[in-house]
Structures are given as C-alpha cells and as structure tokens.
C-alpha cells in the first residue's frame, strides 16, 4: 500500500472535516471477517453519513477493503 501511514483519526478528519462528534463502531472479529474494520458515522443537518475503514497488513487505514488473498496449493 502507501508508504505514508496516516492514523485513523487523521483520515476521519480528512474525509469529514472538523464536524465534531463521530460515532465509531467495530464489528466483532470472526473467521468470516478477520480483518480490522471500523465504521465511522457523523450526523449533519442533511443526514447521517458513514464510511467503513479497513486496516491493511502494512498498518495503513483505507476506505476500500484489503485485497483478497486466495490460498495457493503447491503440487509436488
């Protein structure tokens, strides 16, 4: 991914600005969803907006999911 690792707080401010109160939720980790994911919501007069942030293996947070790694099999 990117050589620059921004904190989740910095990314939220980049996307939403300094709107004040954010609601951050995190689903339970399971085998179905082993990656680190948080949903950030902000309420504004025009409605509630939400973005889902994914933490990649290099430690960076992004709004798009990490690439799917397909298992490989070695045939001897």
From TrEMBL:
Organism: Paraburkholderia steynii
Domain of life: Bacteria
Annotated protein name in UniProt: Uncharacterized protein
């Amino acid at each position: 991914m990117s050589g620059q690792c921004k904190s989740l707080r910095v990314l939220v401010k980049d996307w939403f600005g300094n709107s004040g109160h954010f609601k951050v939720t995190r689903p339970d980790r399971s085998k179905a969803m082993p990656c680190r994911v948080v949903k950030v919501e902000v309420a504004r007069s025009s409605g509630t907006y939400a973005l889902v942030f994914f933490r990649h293996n290099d430690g960076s947070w992004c709004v798009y999911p990490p690439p799917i790694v397909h298992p490989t099999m070695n045939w001897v």
